[in-house]
Specification:
mainly beta; 54% strand; single chain; 4-stranded antiparallel sheet; globular
């Protein structure tokens, strides 16, 4: 796996399927916006829009008011789900109209499994009783959560689902000096926390997770003075870490082909 440095943005893709042919119909772009914590003002609003891949024309379709920032967007066959500050928002994929929005304090990343929306949580200078929560994908009604005794005990970030297991990046990145190096495993069928994989001291604060050839790759922000990428082999349980010797801060990462960017 080759590791290459670039900057990225939060994207989701809408695939149109016609007569056995798949093509990208729209690219969904979730824009983080900018909140000035010194003056407590929103200098750039949080927005969501589409890019037409044929023309590369960008068209916003919603402004997420009362959101200081955005952190994730995912798409399934019918809907778009966005995580923005303290809100989980659902849109119709075809009309792009908002359908529902609920308050989820500390929402970070989201993933879909069956008819459920999986949510990780964390926020600076705030502690929660739950860092993993699950909502009904249709109604957005709360289904269940794993508390800090029977689930992840620290703020969490990305979620990857493999079969009926959710892998959770548990980095505690909001508590400087106490960053963790954990991948948590959740049995989604039994709704229980299975165990934790320790990535090692050179892999603290995992943020993004990427799946490739039955291996999970994590971008680890460490203490923000340096960073690393870890490879967790799901089949064998082996972990290897590559030090990048440079900070990545809060920038994004992605996997494409055999490269990590």
């Amino acid at each position: 796996m080759k590791i290459t440095s670039i900057a990225t943005i939060l994207l989701a893709f809408i695939l149109q399927v016609n007569a056995q042919t798949n093509y990208v119909h729209n690219i969904i772009v979730l824009n983080e916006g900018r909140y000035d914590y010194t003056t407590n003002t929103q200098t750039v609003p949080v927005t969501i829009g589409t890019i037409n891949p044929a023309t590369f024309i960008y068209t916003p379709f919603d402004t997420l008011v009362n959101s200081r920032f955005a952190s994730d967007v995912v798409v399934n066959n019918q809907f778009i789900y966005a995580a923005a500050d303290s809100f989980l928002v659902k849109y119709d994929k075809y009309s792009l109209q908002p359908l529902n929005s609920i308050v989820v304090p500390g929402i970070r990343k989201i993933a879909l499994w069956n008819n459920q929306v999986l949510v990780s949580k964390g926020e600076y200078q705030k502690q929660f009783n739950y860092y993993f929560e699950v909502y009904d994908a249709g109604s957005l009604n709360f289904l269940y959560a794993l508390d800090t005794t029977n689930g992840p005990a620290y703020s969490s970030e990305d979620i990857i689902v493999v079969n009926n297991t959710a892998y959770l990046a548990v980095g505690n990145g909001f508590e400087w000096g106490n960053e963790q190096d954990i991948i948590g495993r959740v049995d989604l069928t039994a709704q229980t926390y299975l165990n934790e994989i320790n990535l090692g001291p050179n892999a603290t604060n995992p943020e993004n997770m990427m799946l490739h050839n039955n291996k999970i790759f994590t971008l680890n922000n460490q203490d923000y003075s340096t960073s690393s990428v870890s490879e967790y082999d799901i089949a064998t349980g082996n972990v290897t870490t590559t030090d990048l010797l440079t900070p990545t801060g809060c920038s994004a990462s992605a996997i494409a082909g055999n490269n990590i960017y």
